[in-house]
Design goal:
three-stranded antiparallel sheet; disordered C terminus
């Protein structure tokens, strides 16, 4: 356990590796922690993202800590001194990240209990959903890390895939 600030600490997470947890009860609307890192150009962001995708394909693991910041820059938070990078995704998040004058802060979306894991919606696009299985465990889990406004589309896509597989399984050989 590692204290981050008055609101949160780092602990082992049932979702994935390590996570951020509430050190005390947190009221809805509370600013919890700033997401900090290296300011990088969009071009550098793309290069780093592609390199991480290649690494993930080779090794089965790679974490992306890059946040879109503005039209010209992104923020790479892949540094030990950025404990906010350890906040895990949930399909039923209790936090959100808000851009305030090109600084990123995590806020409580609702009241959070002491010791509850802090989470937010990573907002991934559906384009590469198979690369991002979700382990959040919430009752509303989509099975993949896909932003909330695309989850109904994901459900339809998964249903079509499931129906297609079951049709193939029932087909008798000639």
């Amino acid at each position: 356990m590692r204290k981050v600030n008055q609101h949160c600490e780092v602990r082992e997470s049932p979702i994935h590796g390590k996570g951020l947890f509430a050190r005390r009860a947190i009221r809805a609307g509370t600013r919890i922690v700033e997401y900090v890192g290296e300011l990088i150009s969009k071009e550098e962001s793309t290069q780093r993202g592609l390199a991480l995708m290649e690494q993930a394909q080779r090794t089965g693991g790679a974490s992306v800590y890059i946040f879109e910041l503005n039209d010209n820059h992104d923020l790479d938070g892949n540094f030990e001194w950025n404990p906010a990078r350890l906040c895990n995704h949930s399909c039923d998040p209790n936090c959100e990240v808000v851009n305030e004058d090109d600084r990123l802060f995590m806020y409580a979306l609702r009241d959070i209990s002491k010791s509850e894991e802090l989470s937010f919606d990573y907002g991934y696009d559906i384009a590469h959903f198979l690369d991002h299985p979700c382990r959040c465990g919430s009752a509303s889990c989509a099975g993949y890390i896909v932003r909330a406004d695309q989850r109904s589309k994901l459900k339809r896509r998964l249903q079509r895939r499931s129906n297609g597989k079951s049709l193939i399984a029932r087909k008798k050989p000639r």
